[in-house]
Automatic annotation (TrEMBL):
Keywords: Purine biosynthesis, Transferase. It comes from Shimia gijangensis. The keyword GTP-binding does not apply. CDD domains: FMT_core_GART (cd08645). GO terms for biological process: 'de novo' IMP biosynthetic process. GO terms for molecular function: phosphoribosylglycinamide formyltransferase activity. This is Phosphoribosylglycinamide formyltransferase. InterPro entries: Formyl_transf_N, Formyl_transf_N_sf, GART. One of its GO terms (cellular component) is cytosol.
Length: 182
């Protein structure tokens, strides 16, 4: 997320960051965003365990304060319901560590290795009510190297995520939904 904010603050970006919102007060991006004079907020999900609707109501109330045009999810490991997603549909992006439609959900790097894939990567997609299922806005590929561990593969994918997400957001904010492939 920090790379997105840095890119948006570069001076020639069609989007302006208005808030970095996390569900964990220890998220590293909060300090970095604050250092860049970008507003931050935390809506901790733990007090809402068992009441997803209340958590999403608190998220929405926080977003209503700044009224963003686009929401960019990164490292937000909470499944959002249709009730939350629907008002933002077509304006909420997510980055996922696999070449969707492969490996929706968790443990994507281990699953790619277990399957014997020769390449892996990441995808930026529009968020829909179905998990990791929205239209693809961009993908970046990395080779799977013989002997890779899930952590080694994840590190290479993360490097690509830091390139792909800003490139996709820049185009998306300018109205271009043509997929980006790195």
């Amino acid at each position: 997320m920090v790379r997105l904010v840095e890119d948006m603050l570069s001076g020639d970006h069609p989007a302006e960051p208005v808030l970095v919102l996390a569900n964990d007060e220890n998220a590293g991006g909060l300090i970095k965003a604050d250092d860049m004079d970008v507003s931050t907020a935390v809506v901790d999900h733990r007090p809402f365990l068992g009441d997803r609707a209340a958590f999403e109501t608190a998220l929405q109330a926080t977003l209503n304060i700044v009224q963003p045009d686009i929401i960019c999810l990164a490292g937000f490991m909470r499944v959002l319901t249709e009730g939350f997603v629907a008002p933002w549909e077509g304006r909420m992006l997510n980055i996922h560590p696999s070449l969707l439609p492969k490996y929706k959900g968790l443990h994507t790097h281990a699953r790619a290795l277990e399957a014997g894939d020769v390449e892996h990567g990441c995808t930026v997609h529009l968020v829909t009510p179905a998990l990791d299922d929205g239209p693809v806005l961009g993908q970046a590929r990395v080779p799977v190297i013989k002997g890779d561990t899930a952590d080694q593969l994840a590190a290479r994918v993360l490097e690509k995520e830091h390139q792909l997400y800003p490139a996709v957001l820049r185009r998306f904010a300018a109205g271009d939904t043509t997929p980006v492939y790195l």
